[in-house]
Amino acid sequence: MSQSQSQGNGKLYVVGIGPGSPEHLTLRAVEVLESVDVIIGNGTYLDQIDHLITGQRVIRSGMGKEVDRAGKAIELARERKVAMVSGGDSNVYGMAGLVLEVARHTDLDVDIEVVPGVTALSAVASLLGAPVVSDFAVISLSDLLTPWDVIEQRLTAAATSDMVIGIYNPKSRQRNTNFMMAVEIIRRHRGDSVPVGIVQNALRPVGESVIVTTLGEAMDHEDKVDMSTTVIIGNSESRIWNSKIITPRGYHKKYEY
Ligand code: SAH
């Protein structure tokens, strides 16, 4: 604890609220959200937990205002119990990192608890069957904070490793060619018959769409790729069965069934 700042009675929770339906919130997330004085987050996420808002003060903050939001949450948490909500898991491209970084830089003593949630990859994988039971790499195509050449290097590394690849942030209005470029890079190292799952709004009450296709035909479904979509690209052993994707773990090499 820093000597320069005295700690109040507050606490800051960074709460992963899962993919978007109440059923996929964890018990801990519900318990925390019901017990805090203040809930802070962007509008979309606050709408997802609307049913839990009773007397808590709610602070809505816009997209792109993450640094301000983190600073404000930390400041408030010196005296109050504050929950900052983050979609999916609070670590995976979530607010946990920024909150801890801002806390470190401002040297404010606040008690911080990171509450995990069901990340988009798990939500999407559950709808596709069993695509990620083996090693996988997860890459975000958002080049707002990571330069595109670094993203390309990571795509190449993942594609050549034959790991299953999960793609977050495949497209936005400003960046609508990133997904096409990513598919091109992966196709240099992986066959056209490799299974691909394109899932939009997984486990959300509205707008859910699940497509099982192949790498060669993935771009035919580009209209289903936006900022609410996660894409999973299988490895060389992944297969499509009954509109599901199965990536063998390797049991078949050891056991008969
Ligand atoms: N922390 C979040 C990810 C934030 S990045 C998590 O752990 O899930 C935002 C990206 O997550 C979106 O562009 C999309 O690729 C993915 N995503 C989040 N929720 C999703 C959902 N319900 N269905 C499909 N993809 C989702």
Can you put this structure into words, describing what you see?
This protein has 257 residues and is of the alpha/beta class. The protein has two domains: 116 residues, Tetrapyrrole methylase, N-terminal domain (Cobalt-precorrin-4 Transmethylase, domain 1, 3-Layer(aba) Sandwich); 126 residues, Tetrapyrrole methylase, C-terminal domain (Methyltransferase, Cobalt-precorrin-4 Transmethylase, Domain 2, 2-Layer Sandwich), CATH 3.30.950.10. It has eight helices and 13 strands. Helix 2 links the parallel strand 2 and strand 3. Helix 3 packs across helix 4 and helix 6 packs parallel to helix 7. The chain is elongated, with a radius of gyration of 20 Å. Bound molecules: S-adenosyl-L-homocysteine.
Structural key phrases:
257 residues, single chain, five-stranded mixed beta sheet, Cobalt-precorrin-4 Transmethylase, domain 1, 8 helices, binds S-adenosyl-L-homocysteine, 29% helix, elongated, alpha/beta, 2 domains
Q: Helix/strand-derived class?
A: alpha/beta
Shape: elongated
The main sheet comes to: 5 strands, parallel
Q: What's the Cα radius of gyration?
A: 20 Å
Number of helices: 8
Physical arrangement of strands within the biggest beta sheet: 3-2-4-1-5
* Order of secondary-structure elements: EHEHEHEHEHEEHEHEEEEEH
> What is the CATH class name of the largest domain?
Alpha Beta
User: What would you say the CATH architecture of the largest domain is?
Assistant: 2-Layer Sandwich
Mean pLDDT: 93
Small molecules bound in the structure, each named once: S-adenosyl-L-homocysteine
Fraction in beta strands = 15-25%
Please give the domain count. Answer: 2
Terminal residue distance: 56 Å
In total, how many beta strands? 13
Let me know the CATH homologous superfamily of the largest domain.
Tetrapyrrole methylase, C-terminal domain
Unreliable stretches? 1-6
What share of residues is helical?
25-40%
CATH topology of the largest domain: Methyltransferase, Cobalt-precorrin-4 Transmethylase, Domain 2
